Amino acid sequence: MRILVTGSSGHLGEALARTLRDLGHEVIGLDIVEGPLTTRLGSVAHRATVKRCMAGVRHVFHPATLHKPHVATHSRQDFIDVNLTGTLNLLEESVSAGVESFVYTSTTSVFGDALVPPAGEPAAWITEDVAPIPKNIYGVTKAAAEDLCQLFQRNQGLACMVLRTSRFFPEEDDDRNARASYADDNLKVNEYLHRRVDIEDVVSAHLLAARHATTLGFRRYIISATSPLQPEDMVALRASAPLVVQRRVPAYAALYARLGWKMAPGIDRVYVNARAREELGWQPRYDFSSLIERLQNGEDFRSPMARLVGAKGYHAEVFAEGPYPVE
């Protein structure tokens, strides 16, 4: 089966292309830069390029995007061109080509200001029912592209799914204070409690979304690691995260002490993946509890796919203030 994967030189694009190729599919990998799984060079913003890639394609996976790290280095028009016009090009050409399913990779960043409650309030329990309040051009264009997918499912009958993924990139955090306060692995493992997911699990969610797209119709799903935290934890979690985590995952404390790691003093939001697990049958393998067990056994907490894809960076240049500039 011929499948188009956009952004095939990026983290998720490469992981998707590798997995689909290993499953025996013919993968058309489209990206603006060369990569081991990229077969066509070009931008989704160029309609003719998209059209040339679509011949014989049965399924489209669309993770190509300008990301949050590009907000300070690219114009708003760049974001419109790539994230919005690029998605529109793909949707229209998918309809013309008779594509069976279209899976759009969105982001939990669309929630924006809804993610951080006012001081003194409980941590936010983030489900798909929370209304997004985008706070930058990245969030605005990703949310608008989601709406385009919904429009094409409703009006053109294109089976579309939207997956709002949480963090899976291996690059260092852009927050200078976070980098100074935690070892990088420590910071990332902490995030599996509330806002991180392994790329192998992201890939499996995409494959399931494509499989169920024609029967479920349009859906939006949060794709994040299954958290051991519960709604009743949200008040204490904001101010006393170590105590809450100790109650939910008692084994973590001794391991962290041995590694010289520390838990965040407070956590402000938890992404909830229940709908994806229930409706897609998604079974993410990498969560905070399983990572604690892996680390106890001396294993790497990252999946084989995460280690294979590795870090890629977001810019050709190096910035003195961190892995990428923040607007």
Written overview of the protein:
- This protein has about 325 residues and is an alpha/beta fold.
- The chain has one domain: NAD(P)-binding Rossmann-like Domain (Rossmann fold, 3-Layer(aba) Sandwich).
- The strands form 2 sheets. A 7-stranded parallel beta sheet has the order 3-2-1-4-5-7-8, with helices on both faces. Strands 6-9 form a two-stranded parallel ribbon.
- About 40% of the residues lie in helices and about 15% in strands.
- The protein has 13 helices and 9 strands.
What are the key terms here?
327 residues; alpha/beta; Rossmann fold; 7-stranded parallel sheet; two-stranded parallel sheet; 9 strands; NAD(P)-bd_dom_sf; Lipid_A_modif_metabolic_enz; NAD-dependent epimerase; Epimerase_deHydtase
